[in-house]
Amino acid sequence: MPLREEFEISGNWLFRRRGWLPMLLFPFAIALLYFYRDFTYACVTSTFWSTVCLLVSLLGLLVRALTVGHTPKGTSGRNTEKQVADCLNHTGVYSVVRHPLYLGNFLMWLGLFLFIGIWWFVIICVLVFWLYYERIMFAEEEFLRRSYSQAYETWASQTPAFLPRLSGWQASTLPFSLRNVLKREYNGLLALVVSFTLLNAMSHLFMHQQLQVDVFWQIVFGLGVVIFIILKSLKKYTHVLEIAGR
């Protein structure tokens, strides 16, 4: 089988499982908290370092929000069954980077990797994520190439795949929709705060054989859960977050 086809097949396989595959790195992070507990405990329980890492992850969530807020229905979704692109997004965030959602995902996970405080683990995770996302991006771009031909070629030749080039910015053709962001991104926020809080709790458990959570993460976790419950309820029981075409 030609490499191009093999890459696309493996990329589509990873695409369908992209919602949970990165979580396979989480047990390794917990293992590091145990085996390097004298060092990692100082990082995971530092309010300053916690704030820095949380901000890195929230930056990723912000990138996702800016992307989702300007995109129409049928694009930039969380679909896992097959590739879907009812139109080719090429303005807004997509005018400076071709895969802004994956850039956002990477930053969200990077904050968690940094939180552990072991730099060789961060480097390994970055390399794993690059190989992982490279295949998915390849499969997505093959789909877009077949679907949009010359329009895709023109956009791809002018826009970097993963590292943004701000000089290429073009205003989005759609106005920003906060409701669209709130409707689609609350799960990611909850997963983020739960992950950070769990790592903090496990670090305390391994160090002192006592399950506890620092006040900083208690507050973050509480806010995250409240926001999640409110937004999930609004989405399930009302039409407040619905907007035509988004």
From TrEMBL:
Q: How does it sit in the membrane?
A: Multi-pass membrane protein
Give the matching InterPro entries. Phopholipid_MeTrfase
Enumerate the GO terms in the molecular function aspect.
Answer: transferase activity
Q: Where are the transmembrane segments?
A: 20-36, 48-67, 106-133, 186-203, 215-231
* Keywords noted in UniProt: Membrane, Transmembrane, Transmembrane helix
| Subcellular location per the Swiss-Prot or TrEMBL entry | Endomembrane system
**Which Gene3D superfamilies does the UniProt record give?**
1.20.120.1630
Q: Which residues form a coiled coil?
A: none
What is this protein's name? DUF1295 domain-containing protein
Organism annotation: Adhaeribacter swui
